[in-house]
Amino acid sequence: MATNEDNLKKIIAHSKEYGFVFQSSEIYDGLSAVYDYGQLGSELKKNIKEYWWKAMVQMHENIVGLDAAIFMHPETWKASGHIDAFNDPLIDNKDSKKRYRADVLIEEYIEKIRLKIQKDVDKGIQRFGADFDETQFRATNPNVLRNQAKIDEIHLRFKVAMDEEDMPAIKVLIEELGIACPLSGSKNWTDVKQFNLMFSTEIGSVADAASTIYLRPETAQGIFVNYLNVQKTGRMKIPFGIAQIGKAFRNEIVARQFIFRMREFEQMEMQFFVRPGEEMKWYEYWKKERIKWHQSLGIAVENYRFHDHIKLAHYANAACDIEFNFPMGFKELEGIHSRTDFDLKQHEKHSGKKLQYFDPELNESYVPFVVETSVGLDRTFLSILSAAYQEEKLEGDSERTVLKIPGFLAPVKIAIMPLTRKDGLPEKAREILDVLKFDYNCQYDEKDSPGKRYRRQDAIGTPYCIMVDHQTLEDNSVTIRDRDSMEQERVNVSQLETIFRDKFDIRKRLK
Ligand code: ATP
Asked: What would the pLDDT profile of 1-47 be if each residue is shown by its tens digit?
């Protein structure tokens, strides 16, 4: 049976072979944790962005967009806390020379205990079926209770150590838990060190300390510093949101999981400004909205779950992740954070400018609280690709590799093929292409047998293929072949636009 790691390897190889994702500067042997999106990858990425933007901005009267610069005044990062606190705890294994995030090693250890609990629960379900009371089982079974107590204790020790920035205590925890290097099995660890993840560079031609600037590690701060500009010029009334899609940069310590953890990546963020005291209501609201958005993509719902944060970031009073079942297991896809008034207050302090909102209903001014939704574009891409990638056995001995990408996101929507390269079939096929290309990214393909052409389209996730044959010349009908069912339906060319409008309609998803 293929392991998860094998699956990830296959997805990486497939992405490269068909032009989804290439390693950056590959001819120079690549640059670690930096990737380029190829001819199909860039289409898929663009479609995801568009869908997010539609769902967040176009569908909400009180959310508007922004496109802020990557470079920002360096004081921004002092105010936001990134210069002082945007660190990850780093640990090296002395034998394998591999570097890890200490918090990730501990989280993975906890996940193993969690899996043990789940195994016990699954056994119960198997034995007692519908009569099984999972809540009661979790609250009374001695094995489960013991394992849960272990998890709670590790969480607590880890949280205290992180809050107090006590790096030696983290090392002690790793040693006491007997955590070994996943690659070598060695427990020979260095001390734990804090490592700042921001990239810096210099602006202007005079190299002195004052000209150091940073590549933004998150897009959020561009929204905060523009909050009053947008509120005033857009006449926005609280509650309202500002959405942005853009690049972010982090000098990640461990970057070995393809586009899951990159040093240059893209975020789709929305900061929602609310009345102080109402943030929990909106936090719950956005948790529901965002999981709904992910589930609207059409990937099986059991691939998503919430995970509450143990260690809250310095700015948050509540935070959770939406996790996805990646080939490497459940990992963070999106963060939803109640950021309080921390950022705006800090920017007031550091800039000396008031960032208050006058609330006409309350007749008072205040600094709004903020609820943030922040999803990685590249991780969304990987979630879609990993759920889509399938190797199927077909009748007889043949098999196919198919990307079952949700149709509305597919890079190529329709492939148009003449059965043969003669008898006027190519001309007819191009006629159809010339109509559909206004609305859809289409591909014309006339080379090789129809079977081979279908396989090629399956491999890049094209949901529909139109075949133009001799009957087309007689009655103006073509076949539409469905990628997932592989079934073919004969329809009249005059119906094609209506048929595809319905097939690619995103209304149902956005409702
Ligand atoms: P992690 O714990 O995995 O490092 P994070 O909690 O630091 O992530 P956030 O700061 O909440 O991440 O960023 C919001 C989103 O941006 C994440 O949910 C993720 O989808 C994306 N993201 C963060 N770091 C990276 C990265 N290095 N590569 C790709 N996407 C990233």
From this structure: 455 778 999 999 999 999 999 999 999 999 999 999 999 999 999 99
Same domain, 66 and 92: no
Mutate to test the pocket of ligand 1, among 267, 269, 315, 338 (most ligand atoms within 8 A of CB): 267
48 C-alpha to ligand 1 centroid (Å): 17
CA distance 99 to 261: 14
Give Cβ neighbours of residue 421 (< 8 Å, ≥ 6 apart).
Answer: 446
3-state class (DSSP) for residue 392: strand
Q: Give the pLDDT mean for 44-51.
A: 98
Give the CATH number of the domain where residue 116 resides.
3.30.40.230
377 and 454 assigned to the same domain: no
The CATH number of the domain holding residue 505 is: 3.40.50.800
Check whether residue 55 and residue 165 sit in a common domain.
no
Residue nearest to atom 3 of ligand 1 (CA): 332
56 domain-assigned: yes
- Tell me how far the alpha carbon of residue 149 lies from the centroid of ligand 1, in angstroms: 29
Q: In testing the pocket of ligand 1, which one of 323, 326, 374 has its CB within 8 Å of the most ligand atoms?
A: 374
Binned at pLDDT 50, 70 and 90, residue 209 comes out as low
Residues with a CB atom less than 6 Å from ligand 1: 218, 250, 252, 261-262, 265, 267, 332-335, 374-376, 378-379
Other Cβ atoms within 10 Å of 299 Cβ, number: 20
Tokens 């005033």 belong to 232
Residue type at 490 in one-letter notation: R
Amino acid 101: pLDDT: 92
For ligand 1, atom 20: residue with the closest CA: 376
Residue 271's domain is classified under what CATH number? 3.30.930.10
Q: Is residue 128 situated within a structural domain?
A: yes
Instruction: Kindly give the distance from the C-alpha atom of residue 499 to the centroid of ligand 1, in angstroms, as a whole number.
Output: 39
Q: Decide: 466 and 478 in contact? Cβ < 8 Å.
A: yes
Angle formed at CA 121 by CA 309 and CA 132, multiple of 5 degrees? 120
User: If you measure from the C-alpha of residue 290 to the centroid of ligand 1, how many angstroms do you get, rounded to a whole number?
Assistant: 16
